[in-house]
Amino acid sequence: MVTPSRLRRRLCWKAGWIHSNRLIYYNDIIMKNSHPLLELLEKDQIGIRQYKDEKIDAEKYNKINQEVIYEFKEYIKNNGFPFKNLYGQDVYKAAVVLALHTSNDFLESIFEIIKEAGENQIDIKDKAYFIDRILVYRGKPQIYGTQFKISIDGLMEPLSIEDPHNVNKRRAEIGLELIEKYKKRVEEQG
To answer: Is position 178 within any domain?
Structure first.
């Protein structure tokens, strides 16, 4: 088990080469609230960043990703989904991010758990990410425009959207920003 002091030392060492504000933010959360899902999120995000920065190859990244997914599935199997009213916003958000990185079957099983949950348990707009990801996995157009890909030109563009002319109306109904603003944010995060 990682003790808080060992975790702090490990994270302080990592802070020297982590350049993403999001990762630094997640590291701050982990240092304050050592929870297994926060530690998994850290491992997930560092693996992604290292792969994007070409510090590790695809094989190493896939190994890290599979370890994270396995540990996340075990956590959910043993503890259930960590709703925000029970575990707090940080642990809940870590679970959402990790769930979105799993296979479609597991993602759908988690969506079955959260789809009827109230606003005190989940952020309603997170349902849009689950719905879109599931639709994309099934080869169907997304509804809310949350899923992007890198185009041939190297630009970020949303995957196919059902009725794209009304996507901002649907996004507004559940509290998401305009797709144009979201696209800009996605492009900035790379």
So the answer is: yes
